[in-house]
Give the backbone structure.
Amino acid sequence: MAGLQEYKCPCCGGGIAFNSELQKMKCPYCETEFEMEALQGYDSDLKTDSTDEMDWEVQAGSEWGNGETDNMRVYSCKSCGGQIIGDANLGATSCPYCGNPVVMMGQFSGALRPDLVIPFKLDKEAAKAAYQKHIQGKKLLPKVFAAQNHIDEIKGIYVPFWMFDADADARIRYKATKVKEWSDSEYNYKETSYYSVVRGGELSFESVPVDGSSKMEDELMESIEPFQIKDAVDFQTAYLAGYLADKYDIDAEQSKERASSRVKRSTEQIFRETVKDFDQVEVEASSVKLSSCKAKYVLCPVWILTTLWNQNYYTFAMNGQTGKLVGDLPEDKSLSRKLGWGIMVAGTIGIIALQYLLWLIR
């Protein structure tokens, strides 16, 4: 004898059963009612759900040519452990990450040769101007910081990125709700309708970036994106002259998980934009299958600006191609508290005024 079909409530996950009085399926936990046809369609959707298949087969970078690295040196920071690459003419310098002095280790060796490089389009003066614009109009910025503000270090550095290409075949199921509210002379009513919305299709992703340096904060690098890969050229060591280059310590294999996460998140967001006219929408299940996966090793231009204030280092990063600058600033806590008190007082006055108005109406 075949087993009975068991249905789970799409709203709360509890077991549901047929209600003979309503002639519908009803959840005894959240009391939501369902038409049998709707549940059968939902059950059919559940059976078609599958898992992600995001197996990257990537090879990026190449071996260095004979004599190509003769003029390149590796410099190491004894404080944070960061390693950077410069030419043999580089004088005394400091770590672009923590500001401490760096020492030369010797001839550069190992590591893969980049496939492409995006050359710097903006110079140091552009980075200074972008920083000045960034701090203008910040109400909670301490006045002393703004008045005495100066940049201690500005360094142009090529940051290693792994750029991933892939085609994605996706199927995503969203749980959506519509809420209707009304009232009569005795009661207020609220009706919530639940929907299962399925989206699917194929997308192509090009140059999904993942930075290959553990010393560069991922959030900071993502904030100054995008880099325009159309401006990339075949790598030559001549592009490193006058700049530093970070030596990657996260390889392409280690970066696949972050690339997969970014592809999946972007896919869900793109399809989500097609689910309209609902009060609430959330992903219930998604499946993304990748194919034609490729990766490139690309050096991307970044200006790193650091300033020391009140014994704290503040770091800013600017996209050396587009000029987008991001970074945290100190906050005047006394001014912030005053502003908070002002908002609270204004809110209290507003409540008192409303109560007085209601009293007059009675």
Summary: Residues 336-362 form one domain. Helices lie at 36-48, 124-135, 143-148, 218-223, 252-272, 333-361.
